[in-house]
Amino acid sequence: xxxxxxxxxxxxxxxxxxxxxxxxxxxxxxxxxxxxxxxxxxxxxxxxxxxxxxxxxxxxxxxxxxxxxxxxxxxxxxxxxxxxxxxxxxxxxxxxxxxxxxxxxxxxxxxxxxxxxxxxxxxxxxxxxxxxxxxxxxxxxxxxxxxxxxxxxxxxxxxxxxxxxxxxxxxxxxxxxxxxxxxxxxxxxxxxxxxxxxxxxxxxxxxxxxxxxxxxxxxxxxxxxxxxxxxxxxxxxxxxxxxxxxxxxxxxxxxxxxxxxxxxxxxxxxxxxxxxxxxxxxxxxxxxxxxxxxxxxxxxxxxxxxxxxxxxxxxxxxxxxxxxxxxxxxxxxxxxxxxxxxxxxxxxxxxxxxxxxxxxxxxxxxxxxxxxxxxxxxxxxxxxxxxxxxxxxxxxxxxxxxxxxxxxxxxxxxxxxxxxxxxxxxxxxxxxxxxxxxxxxxxxxxxxxxxxxxxxxxxxxxxxxxxxxxxxxxxxxxxxxxxxxxxxxxxxxxxxxxxxxxxxxxxxxxxxxxxxxxxxxxxxxxxxxxxxxxxxxxxxxxxxxxxxxxxxxxxxxxxxxxxxxxxxxxxxxxxxxxxxxxxxxxxxxxxxxxxxxxxxxxxxxxxxxxxxxxxxxxxxxxxxxxxxxxxxxxxxxxxxxxxxxxxxxxxxxxxxxxxxxxxxxxxxxxxxxxxxxxxxxxxxxxxxxxxxxxxxxxxxxxxxxxxxxxxxxxxxxxxxxxxxxxxxxxxxxxxxxxxxxxxxxxxxxxxxxxxxxxxxxxxxxxxxxxxxxxxxxxxxxxxxxxxxxxxxxxxxxxxxxxxxxxxxxxxxxxxxxxxxxxxxxxxxxxxxxxxxxxxxxxxxxxxxxxxxxxxxxxxxxxxxxxxxxxxxxxxxxxxxxxxxxxxxxxxxxxxxxxxxxxxxxxxxxxxxx
Length: 913
Known about the structure:
Number of strands: 22
Strand order of the largest sheet: 2-3-4-1-5
Largest sheet: 5 strands, parallel
Strand content: 5-15%
């Protein structure tokens, strides 16, 4: 098996090799705008340029600051490329030019910048990734609020939600991270002097952002981020070389054993961590004996079911651990139970996993013999954990002198074990006598050794030692010459029995230790299996009701307890269905939800209840309460049961919070969408109804007042205006009616066979009646078979798309309608224009109702309904419609795909048949 150090080295080496092969990233990180990130980057670039390095300016935003602009002098840069972006727009990165030039180092300012529409990537950090993949080193700048993992924390600090974020995965490619810092007062002074660039549309918001408290918190967050990545880089680099990691962060790990003053030790360790400003955690090591001591005697192979002294002492220890862990969580620390028979190794592994610098332990009760051979916990930690700071806390009271159950498994035989020891020794003696008389077996020590291992594998070390002693005496008395006396005549016989005793003790110790490991692994596997089952159930839950049902079923299956769960207004009861809470139990549940603390059975609050109530907590409030009712004969929960229940409740709380947030986001989305549609509809109606009505009223008024004085041509022109605007108004109202029918699913299809040339020709003639200057070019095979559709609706869809294309086709450029058979009985209709086109990220959105941009039918005279109606009509025919780039990448092509239908059977064919 590969060791932990070898495994870490294996994992780290490929990552380091990839970093050496690809380009390397250097980030100049600041806490806020205006600290001088760009200035620091340019200063470093000038230093590297003087050293002969190939440095290229990709994009740098100086924002008109002369001292920053001066630092760009002499730095090579690419010629500014011609872009389709409007004048005054921010300079964009010439990605292709840099890749062609391929410098050693390129400067890319403002990593979180969103690229202009039409760029290869949406975000600038994606451009940087491509440069790194090409082997180019990149220097870049960013503020801490743009890091994705701290987005929520920044929002809590400043009240400003940052939308342009950078994924933390990009920081895995860091070569160097440089903190550019400035005291809060100096930064505010720079803001007052106008030296900090703020966008005009966000000026007021960002000025509120620049408060001393906000800037101080952001500075601390930036420093912490830099320290985290420096620490991670160091650990990975050392692991790649097979060296042990050196912790940089000052994590404090507190180890307790539940044998007295554990709560005092937690408080002392928490104060140490608080003074250092370090994160901290509390751990305890379960060697497997705790699970064994709390099992009924009958389940350990004994006859009696009464709890023994070891079980009572173990219960006291678990109660103390429960109180200490609850205190640690209340003080803000983390808690964990470690499973290992080697306490020292378990603590060292846990410290390495956490990057701990300090380990805090209490003053332990040391045996003189163990201290003589350097086997005490303190000596082992000092010897094997040399790079840790070990803090030993002396308690104000003498620690309880309890037996060290985790180390020895108990110092007294429990009820039933003496009889088991005697029976094993007696059976071994009888079997040895039979083997001696019937088989003539000379080495009878193996028979006794099997008995010792059997006892060690079924009980604890104390019983195994007593079995070894009894077997030693029986072997000496019955089978070593002279027999039936404790005397040993020959030195060889004395050596035989002494070696047997040593082998029996060693084998018993190993068998007992192996059994403790199996018990510990079984407990850990039970916990992991229950959590995995709960996670699988919760992953399928789509709403709060399903979360409650899944969590209730998982709790019942894992803990064998009746469950009652209330989250919000939803309540669930799991086995038996008739389980109900009386007034006192409901009062305990209400108290738990109100105070966010456990109550009822197994607690010190409202302990008269037969239910154990646990709060379902989120970071901000208590979401609900979960009740568990164990069988009446359950004296006290084991530590593993309590930890499993609390862990499952925490996962249920996360799932409930997820569903609540999803519901809130959906409600907010629906409200926003409704408001947007309402505004769009009002805007559309006010324009598209008023404009034709105004033209019609004006023309009619002119005819009424001055008609007899007008020429016939002027009168005909006014009448034509009334006619055209009336038809335009009719089309708009028809669009609204069509959308109403589509939205209410009231559209019925009356299909008929019709040729595509007839449909396209009718739609083209209709379009040219309204837009005489538009030219339409048809490309339809002459032998194309008819299609089975609703003719009027498909003609309306074709007209809407062609009208949409006509609005944005350049003068003199025709609209191309191309019809071709497609695979699988489909007909493909492409309507293309030579206009400005539609960006890729907006092509799907143009089919949304009332989506308004200066493209497609969302232009100045558009209602935002035409293409939506097309999508509804084509969808009703079981077809599809998509927007694609036009021919040769210019303009837009709207592709409609319709099912052809079964071809009609001609009368001549019927007669032939």
